[in-house]
Design goal:
- The chain is α+β, with helices and mostly antiparallel strands.
- The chain folds into four domains: about 100 residues, no CATH class; about 160 residues, Alpha Horseshoe (Serine Threonine Protein Phosphatase 5, Tetratricopeptide repeat); about 200 residues, Serine Threonine Protein Phosphatase 5, Tetratricopeptide repeat, CATH 1.25.40.10; about 180 residues, Jelly Rolls, CATH 2.60.120.560.
- Helix content is about 45%, strand content about 20%.
- It is built from 27 helices and 22 strands.
- The strands form six sheets. Strands 9, 10, 11, 13, 18, 19, 20 and 22 form an eight-stranded antiparallel β-sheet that branches. A six-stranded antiparallel β-sheet has the order 12-21-14-15-16-17. Strands 1-6 form a two-stranded antiparallel ribbon.
- A hairpin with a 2-residue loop joins strand 18 and strand 19.
- The termini are far apart.
């Protein structure tokens, strides 16, 4: 017995080894093959093709490249019709091949997992389920399918969406539900969003791992204003490793605008730009977020990219100069402002003004004076801020007579409360040792609540005025009051943002706002004589136009039929029931499905947005302001050529240029998440 056992032992061991091998093979992933285009096929036929892994020479007799099921699905499965090498259509091509060394590894060409020897791919390496194989391998059907497919993709690339839709539907007759995502994309491009969503749902059910279906459905939902539904779809596409940069950018925009989740917004903006470095769209949003977070280096990095992408045009350089100024990078800001001035020397009084501020900070007082004098020369409105700066500067240059002249000019031109102006006058009179006058303007400055007393106590320009008895009384009085804003830390930056808004007003636009031209529309909503569209949401109510709760997360709008250009639109608006994160306001520039909105929210924010027919673009993101009050707020948008100015309770909050703007219909907007009332809708001719 022992004799026979030892005789059989090698065979028993061999059997265990084989069973182990079979078990291992069974546990290993199955695989598919991938395709190459006609050009690569020709190269392989001639014996100088490329290995799919190492690029060594292969021929059409070399072994086929293998890709595991998971990677194959991520690469697009049945619809992965691009050449492995050159991204060309693979009709009439061949399979990707491997050199001997790479083939011997028996690995997935993407993730390097070990594979078994059972090829479950069909002749084209694009099998998803059995029904597709049966359909495509019916004699004549494969050729017919690819003919329609190629025609469809060519038409889609040329933006002939109706034609592409017809061809994709012919493909659908051969492989039912196969091109569902592509049909949905055509319908979305044709703005037939509800139909598109149905096809995206079919595509998702058919292949839950295909990121494009989620991405495109998310875009369709966003186009319908259903942002709450769009967000998880975009996130799903991202989780499936979509390479669509816009999925990341739009998701970031939703996190920023809808949820004020700035950290997540930054994360996804960065990923989107990593996938598409040449994209300038939304980069301004990211720059603003980095500025708010105090991350100068990151903000500057994206600002420099924007300048490069836009060939250092004035708009991009303005963004860079503003960033440097806001972070007190005075020396770096000077050459940027000088560059802006050199590009358009006759229409840049704002650049001269801020160049002067930078030069003052680095103690180049003569240069600062020269640039502020140039500001006054070019600025038809002769803003008092500039004169107040000159008053202090002349004292730095020991020119008291000129300083006194500029103080008087400043006082004569003051038309509103401004801590910036009052503080500068205090400094100038202190340097002149005219303490009584200095104390008058010091109290005015303190009353605004925008002066940092801790900084003021150490300001060398106030050395003289601090010797006065009344100075201590004023400081004690206002330090203990609730009026003082202790967040401001630098004298010359205390009203930087407010100063920019005030000084940046184009003089012609300022005249338009103060003295409007012919009244084109004057709607009091007593009888809707201008024929605003009314429906279940928009109704006339006690001499006002009201918008009551509509569909959640949808922006409802109503407008008049005529188009307007170079005009000022004004309305009084209030929220009646509060949903703090949602907006209401003015719609303008409406053409087709494209329009712009200037909105405010009950929680004290304003925003300028652009709907391009597919997604929202945040031109000015939600910005916190103290100008919004309970009750009616006056909203105003003035358009002059490409320049857009927006006012909130007669305070300029937006000054921007939109190169693509050409006017259009105007109206009102209101989120379906709140109730709002509008009154006294007026349009002036500019």
């Amino acid at each position: 017995m022992k004799k026979y056992f030892f005789f059989l032992l090698p065979f028993i061991l061999l059997l265990f080894i084989l069973l182990g091998e079979l078990s291992t093979l069974k546990a290993q992933p199955q695989y598919y093959t991938v395709s190459v285009c006609r050009l690569c096929y020709t190269s392989q036929e001639n014996g100088y093709g490329r290995c799919a892994v190492c690029r060594k020479t292969v021929s059409s007799r070399s072994k086929k490249a293998k890709i595991c099921v998971d990677c194959w699905v991520k690469k697009g499965g049945l619809w992965n019709i691009e050449c492995w090498f050159d991204k060309e259509n693979t009709a009439g091509g061949d399979y990707a091949r491997l050199c001997g060394d790479c083939a011997a590894k028996n690995e997935c060409i993407v993730c390097n997992k070990k594979l078994n020897s059972g090829d479950i791919s069909n002749e084209d390496g694009r099998q998803v389920v059995e029904k597709y194989t049966i359909k495509v391998t019916v004699p004549g059907k494969k050729e017919e399918f690819w003919k329609y497919w190629n025609s469809a993709t060519a038409a889609y690339q040329k933006q002939n969406y109706e034609e592409a839709l017809n061809y994709f539907k012919k493909c659908d007759e051969i492989i039912p539900d196969g091109p569902a995502c592509q049909i949905g994309m055509c319908l979305r491009a044709l703005e037939r969003y509800d139909e598109a969503i149905k096809y995206f749902d079919i595509a998702i059910k058919d292949d839950p791992t295909f990121s494009d279906s989620y991405y495109n459905k998310g875009l369709a939902m966003a186009a319908l204003g259903k942002m709450a539904e769009a967000e998880p779809l975009l996130k799903k596409a991202i989780d499936l490793n979509t390479q669509e940069s816009y999925a990341y950018l739009l998701f970031a925009l939703l996190r920023e605008t809808n949820y004020k989740d700035f950290d997540q917004a930054i994360k996804y903006y960065e990923k989107g730009f990593e996938l598409s470095p040449s994209t300038s769209k939304f980069r301004g949003n990211l720059i603003n977020l980095y500025q708010q977070a105090g991350k100068f280096d990151d903000a500057l990095r994206h600002t420099n990219i924007t300048c490069e992408l836009l060939d250092n045009n004035i708009e991009s350089l303005n963004t860079k100069a503003e960033l440097l100024f806001n972070f007190s990078k005075w020396n770096e800001a000077v050459p940027v402002y000088q560059k802006i001035i050199s590009m358009n020397p006759n229409n840049v009084h704002i650049a001269y003004y801020f160049l002067g501020l930078c030069q003052y900070q680095i103690k180049e007082f003569e240069n600062a004076r020269d640039n502020w004098e140039k500001t006054i020369e070019l600025d038809e409105n002769k803003n008092p801020e500039t004169y107040s700066c000159l008053a202090v500067c002349e004292m730095k240059l020991n020119n008291p007579a000129d300083a006194k002249k500029y103080c008087e000019e400043t006082i004569n031109r003051i038309s509103r409360e401004s801590s910036f102006i009052y503080y500068n006058l205090t400094c100038a009179y202190s340097l002149m040792n005219e303490l009584d006058k200095g104390l008058v303007f010091l109290e005015k400055a303190l009353k605004t609540g925008q002066v940092n007393i801790d900084y003021m106590e150490s300001d060398a320009d106030l050395t003289n005025v601090r010797t006065a008895k009344k100075y201590k009384e004023l400081v004690d009085k206002y330090r203990n009051s609730n009026l003082i804003n202790t967040n401001t830390t630098e004298k010359k930056r205390e009203e930087t943002k407010e100063q920019k808004k005030e000084v940046a007003v184009d003089q012609k636009m300022e005249a338009v706002v103060k003295e409007p031209g012919n009244i084109l529309v004057n709607e009091t909503f007593n009888n809707n004589k201008t024929d605003f569209g009314l429906n279940n949401y928009w109704k006339l109510n006690n001499g006002m136009l009201t918008c009551s709760y509509g569909k959640k997360s949808i922006l409802h709008s109503t407008r008049i039929s005529e188009e307007y250009k170079d005009c000022t639109i004004e309305v009084n608006a209030r929220w009646d029931e509060r949903a703090k994160n949602y907006g209401f306001g003015i719609q303008f520039g409406y053409k087709g499905d494209e329009y712009y909105t200037f909105s405010i929210s009950p929680d004290g924010h304003y925003k300028l947005s652009h709907w391009d027919g597919a997604e929202w673009n945040s031109l000015i993101p939600w910005t916190k302001t103290d100008l919004i009050k309970n009750g009616f707020n006056n909203l105003k948008v003035s358009c002059l050529g490409k320049n857009i100015y927006a006012y909130l309770n007669n305070n300029l909050v937006v000054n921007t240029k939109i190169d693509s703007f050409s006017g259009g219909k105007v109206g009102l907007v209101c989120s379906g998440d709140l109730n709002a009332s509008f009154d006294d809708f007026v349009i002036y001719k500019n």
